[in-house]
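Aim 2 progress update. The chain analyzed this quarter is reproduced below.
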Amino acid sequence: MVRKTFVSFKKKLIPVVLLLAAVGTQGEEIGAVNTSWKVLGPDNKVVVEAIDDPLVHGVTCYISRAKTGGLSGAVGIAEDKTEVSIACVKTGEVSVKAPLPRQEDIAKLSASFLIKKIHVVRMVDRARGVVTYLTYSDKLIDGSPKNSLSAVVLGPLVTVK
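Predicted structure tokens:
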């Protein structure tokens, strides 16, 4: 009876776990470097990912961040460090689809199994014709999250909602 209940519970839990694991978006992985060797599972590494701004065509942000290896990293339950760096650049002819909100999350990268996310936020400085991109973790550390900032000059293309 107990085994039958456990099997039933396990069948119901697997789709929930898969759904929760897919909640955070991921960038396109450009490359990675190993930072420490693990006996079991993948090594710890620093990964570089590309994220295209969904409303500003021709701007790509490159994020570098730590990925935890080992067995917990292999099965997706490791908590990654919140040390993230960002650099955003023009990668083609720039066009803006619509008036941009003054501030908007353009990506949320998963940094732990369920809770911690790394946000990429676009902020518009209309007076200077610049968009800034801020990364931060939603897990507070000593009162403020670690963060990184990049800016791209767009000139008169910038219009704000």
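The radius of gyration is 19 Å. The mean pLDDT is 76. These observations will guide the mutagenesis experiments scheduled for the next reporting period.
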